[in-house]
Each structure stands twice: as structure tokens, then as C-alpha cells.
Amino acid sequence: MKGVVAPELPAAFAVPAAYGDLLAAVLALLALAALHSAVGIPLVWVFNLWGSADLLYAFYQGNASGLAPGMLQATYFIPTFIVPLLLITHALVFLILLRRDTVAAA
Fold it and tell me: The whole model's pTM is what?
């Protein structure tokens, strides 16, 4: 959509972020659909590891590709509000998964 981000937004940042988010969304939906099967919990692990790595890689790539203030324009709220909530959610899911494994081992 024209005007959502600045035309000078580095493709080195935007393309991996877009495909990483798309894969994370697909993994989340697969994990949700398979939650009551034998592959459900391993899929949640895969989704959570991928989603966390994708967010951290976007931080790195934003710095490495020369992302400057103002280039995100209308999408500034994503790293400002959404990404911190996603990081907290991933941390909580890791906590639940680790506790579940600890209880299962006992």
C-alpha cells in the first residue's frame, strides 16, 4: 500500500521481516490446529522458537540495514507497541512449555 512506509525503507529489513512474520503466522495456526494431537506441543516449540528468533533478527536487521527513524511511517506502532507484547508472550509460552516438561518428567 502506497504511503504506509517510506519508499526508502531498506528491502534488506522489510523482506526478511515480512517472510519471517508470514512463516510465524503459519506455524502458529498449525500449532493451534494440532494442539490436541501428538505433534501439537512440538509444533508449539517450533513456532515459539521461530517467532522469537524472527523478532530478534528483525531488531538486528533494522540496525544493520540502516533503518532510520521515520522510515516506518504509519507502521511505527508495530515495534513500539506490538513487538514488546509479542516478546512477553513468547517468554510466557516458553515458561509454560518448560514447566509442562518439568511436570511431565516428575
Answer: 0.87
Do the Cβ atoms of 6 and 73 come closer than 8 Å? yes
Residues sharing a CB contact under 8 Å with residue 54, sequence separation 6 or more, in sequence order: 17, 20, 21, 23, 24
> Mind listing the pLDDT tens digit of every residue in the chain (106 residues)?
567 888 889 999 999 999 999 999 999 999 999 999 999 999 999 999 999 999 999 999 998 998 888 899 888 889 899 999 999 999 999 999 999 877 766 5
Distance, in Å, from the CA atom of 37 to the CA atom of 96, rounded to the nearest integer, reads 18
How far apart are the C-alpha atoms of 26 and 47, rounded to whole Å? 9
